[in-house]
Amino acid sequence: MFKKIVGHFLNQNEMRKIDTEFYPDPVSSRGKDDFPARARGLLFNEIEKCTGCGDCARVCPSSCIEVEASVNTRNNRPWVSRFEIDFSKCVFCGLCVEVCEPNSLVQTKEVQPAVFNPKDLKMSFGRGDLG
After folding, report:
1. Residue 98 host element (H or E)
2. In this predicted model, what pLDDT tens digit does every residue of 27-57 receive, in sequence order?
3. CA torsion sign, 60 to 61 to 66 to 70?
4. Is the Cβ–Cβ distance between 69 and 49 less than 8 Å?
5. How far apart are CA 71 and CA 78, in angstroms?
6. Count of structural domains within the chain
7. Between the CA of residue 75 and those of 47, 70, 78, what are the distances in Å?
């Protein structure tokens, strides 16, 4: 819990008021349910629905999506071995969600990907090598 103390001064000798603000503020902070229906949050890919077509990667203006796919020879269905989104590059425009034909890519209402290491902002949704 972080605490920020803000002092309001009338002049150098007279202090009028001290406000203490907590982050996140339990009273005025917004939760996931408070966001509008069309709010754009972090991306999530339901890999079982994904065909690996790569339309999302082609339309992305910041080139934050990387897709590698092949065909599973056992059942002739697409196999997405690698699907990565780098949230340090993402501008949350939603273009990738609009072009996704199988509707596997969605924007969640999660908005704070807080991490200590920027490398942790790269999320992987792929299934791994077909083996």
Report:
1. helix 95-99
2. 666 666 777 777 788 999 999 999 999 999 9
3. positive
4. no
5. 5
6. 1
7. 17, 12, 9
User: Residue 23: is its pLDDT beyond 90?
Assistant: no
Domain contains 129: no
Asked if residue 3 belongs to a domain, the reply is no
Tell me, what CATH number does 51's domain have?
Answer: 3.30.70.3270
With residue 56 as reference, give the H or E element that holds it.
helix 55-59
Query: What is this structure's pTM?
Result: 0.71
Q: For residue range 60-108, what is the model confidence (pLDDT) as tens digits?
A: 999 999 999 988 888 888 889 999 999 999 999 999 999 999 999 999 8
Strand partners for 20 = 5
Residue in the structure block whose two tokens are 């020879």: 73
Q: Which residues of 45-71 are buried (b: 16+ CB within 10 A; e: fewer)?
A: beeeebbbbebbbeebeeebbbbebee
Domain that holds residue 111: 35-124
CA 107 and chain centroid, separation: 7
Q: Do the domain assignments include residue 30?
A: no
